[in-house]
Amino acid sequence: MSTTTVTTITSLTPTPGTSTKGQNRMTLDGKPTSYGDFRDDLNRDGYAVIKGAIPLDRAKNYADAFYTYMEGFNLGYNRSDPETVRRGQLPVLNEKGMILDYGVSHEQWVWDIRGEEGVVDAFSKVYDDQDLIVSFDVVNVGFANRVDMPENKPWPHQDQDPSKPGFRCLQGLINLHPCGPTDGGLIICKGGHALSQQFHTEMSHDERIPAWTPEWYGFTDAGMAWLSSHGLQWEKVCAGPGDLIVWDSRTPHYNVAPRGEVDRLAVYACYMPVREVGRADLVRKREAFECRLGTSHWPNAQHVSKTNIAMRDGKPCPVARERPVQEPVLSERVFRLTGIPYLEEMEREEGLV
Ligand SMILES: [Fe+2]
């Protein structure tokens, strides 16, 4: 293990009457609020942009690390040569631009982004809680030169089981390049979070698009018409390098490919309070961390990848790998985001270690 040893952590069991942790957790109910920061946008619209969550110089360094990572597979991709934006010269990515495999979720540069103070702080404010765990999620590259890339068709969806209403999960992505109206990125149905329960009540008869998890709901044409007839509109979310975009999982969304000259570079990161997570979740999460596996956007590791081996044309990719190129070395603060210190405290209290 290359992580730091954690010797002291915040207790999971606050003294009765002394903790206000989580008492001001946002409700994301669509009503006006007066926080005076991004939370007002988030509560009203179901999404928000946190400008400069990562300072610009570091955002540029992370973009450089992203390109260096893709070049480092030595398949022929070179950021300076658009002709090398070819599937055979890149690590395997899906039509939405995600690199899912190769242990990318645990690369040092990805962990450095997850550990950025301005990013973590935004989620702490939403949950009114400093004790958070983070998803081991993937990265997204949307190349401007897409001649060899499959079409990225719209797949408007929510990332939350309709049978479990209410605000449960705040998703996030750190944007590393300029992202304007014609650049690739997130498209979101503004205010859709607040009408989610009504939608599912009134549209429960609608056909369900098959999904790999009940925590995904895809909108049919009829569903899209319902959103439109209730005055909701889709917006392209624009952001600068180092900005954090957050959205309620209930807010309908998808992403679009670039139509301009700029590559889209994004890293997904989602946090939730460890208090909202079960012991079994933390056990599963520790295993995922130790095996350097991904957990989707869910910090509670309810979905864990089976393998890091990328498949290319039905066969293991020649440069497939089980573990990251650069094993992560985490500070004590960032290591807490794995959930492992909290689990270890539970085990100490149970006398298991
Ligand atoms: Fe999604």
UniProtKB/TrEMBL annotation:
Pfam family, one: PhyH
Low complexity bias locations: 1-20
InterPro entries: Phytyl_CoA_dOase-like
SUPFAM superfamilies the record matches: Clavaminate synthase-like
Disordered: region residues: 1-35
Protein name, per record: Phytanoyl-CoA dioxygenase
Originating organism: Aspergillus sclerotiicarbonarius (strain CBS 121057 / IBT 28362)
